[in-house]
Write a structure and sequence with these properties.
The protein is mainly β. It is flat. It has 3 domains: 62 residues, SH3 type barrels; 59 residues, OB fold (Dihydrolipoamide Acetyltransferase, E2P) (Beta Barrel); 57 residues, Nucleic acid-binding proteins (OB fold (Dihydrolipoamide Acetyltransferase, E2P), Beta Barrel), CATH 2.40.50. The termini are far apart. The strands form 3 sheets. Strands 1-6-2-3-4-5 form a 6-stranded antiparallel β-sheet, with no helix packed on it. Strands 9-8-7-10-11 form a 5-stranded antiparallel β-sheet. Strands 14-13-12-15-16 form a 5-stranded antiparallel β-sheet, with no helix packed on it. The mean pLDDT is 88. The protein contains 1 helix and 16 strands. A hairpin with a 2-residue loop joins strand 2 and strand 3.
Length: 188
């Protein structure tokens, strides 16, 4: 199915130069002179190679139709993650390179949606946010709370993010899986 380049969204699977690509990030760029274009970061799901492509907004690309299945994350080893289809209870491995940078947010028992193209898993869609515990947080500097400043913190998965000065070690927070950014303090 052909779509215009300005309709491309993260998680879509498209065909470009005879290969199948999973869209990772999109940025609309509007230069001062000339027409707007989309800067698209995508990964070939067979080889794992990443690339950046620019399309004018009026260009068309081929969007591939895929089947989505509800799955559950079970565990991982060094190079792959094990998932289970919630309908059939069938387990299957998926290379971490296919999941990409979002693999750090996987938690045991997490419900995810996996896209299958021609029977092969090609993309994993995580929930938009996850709740994680801050294990390290720098001390807040006096007077720092008067401005919208942030301090470095380390999450239970080892990810380093910027957190507000009032967050201390041991606090559970909500984190965006799209960009690893602090959203809010977890309730309860």
């Amino acid at each position: 199915m052909k779509i215009q380049a300005n309709q491309i969204r993260p998680g879509m699977i498209i065909e470009h130069e005879g290969r199948h690509w999973t869209v990772l990030k999109i940025q609309l760029i509007q230069p001062g002179k000339g027409g707007a274009f989309n800067q698209v970061e995508m990964r070939d799901f067979r080889s794992g190679i990443k690339t950046h492509v620019r399309w004018r907004t009026q260009d068309t690309v081929e969007k591939l139709i895929f089947e989505e299945k509800n799955c559950q994350y079970l565990f991982s080893d060094n190079s792959q993650c094990i998932f289970m289809e919630t309908d059939s209870y069938e387990q299957f491995p998926l290379q971490k390179i296919i999941i990409g940078e979002q693999a750090v947010f996987l938690q045991e028992g997490m419900a995810v949606t996996i896209a299958f193209l021609e029977g092969c898993p090609v993309a994993v869609n995580l929930p938009s946010t996850v709740i994680m515990t801050v294990i390290e947080a720098d001390a807040a500097v006096r007077g720092q709370t008067a401005t919208a400043s942030y301090k470095p913190g380390v999450l239970e998965n080892g990810l380093k993010i910027m957190i507000p000065p009032f967050i201390e070690a041991g606090t559970r927070i909500v984190v965006s899986t799209a960009d690893g950014r602090y959203v809010e303090r977890a309730k309860g």
